[in-house]
Write the structure tokens for this entry.
Amino acid sequence: MKKFLRILAISIVLIVLAFYFLAIPKFVSLITDYDRYTFEYVTSNPEMVENYGIGSNRNPADYGFPNYEEIDYETLTDGLALNGWYVPASKEGIKQTLMINHGRTSNRLKTMKYLALVKEQGLDSLYNIFIPDLRNSGKSEEAKTALGYEFAEDIVGSMKMLNERFEQTDFVLYGFSMGAMSSAIAVNRPDLVQFQKDNGLKVHKLILDSPLSNVKETSRLAGKEMGIPDFIFNLAWGSFDNEVDDWSDKMKFSYLLSNNKLPTLILYSDSDAMTPAPILEEEIEGEMNVYPVLFKDCDHVQIYTRPEYKERYTSRVNMFLRSNDL
């Protein structure tokens, strides 16, 4: 009996060790690691081109902005190579930039179609436009991400570059999915906020489309759909929390949008499976600085591409960007 118990105890210890050193890191890697979507990967896949809604367009010139610049620069803290498009305003002396930030498993090809909205509404007379490839995306360097935590560093790094090269000081952040979470983190994470203050940089508004609104609850829901028990998720989440400097509990809109009460336009769908509406609605309930606009039966980050919603979407974004001009 004692021999059996000893063997059982050793077996349990080995299973626990295997779980801790193999299963948990594997689950964390599902959160932090994903394939880098290059331009070539997207443009060689007709299904992805259709999903991106770009047709034969490949750069800002195809949307009526031939004077764009493609810029190489670096991340704010870790020296990774980034790349983006800068479209100067149609008027000289404009010091404000609309930065359009893509999400996870994406790149700037997916967000460049919003240049059509900018052109149609004449918003280039009010804003310069910058569309980056954040880390692990497009033409930027391969790297791990953490559901928006590092993307936020890249957004602020983009602001730094735009200030140094083009004397830009004022910004509106227009983010999609994880890029929306990143945009909200960028104006709340203490080190990034201090950097902006020290360098005279200011974000005035947020536009968040199909946003990831609570990283923990959205990940927990995805884990349940994969059959991952809560106790395993909680252990893995503790490891992830270490990777984001114990900040994961603040990666939710109920904190981010109330801590820094910027005017925030949110565009979302009730049928978005990737960033569920009930989680978002609970996160923004009662926030007076948040202006939610609900669309019916749209897939994730596909509202603008729906013909029946394009005019309403465009009108809301145009009105928000023109209200109380900077």
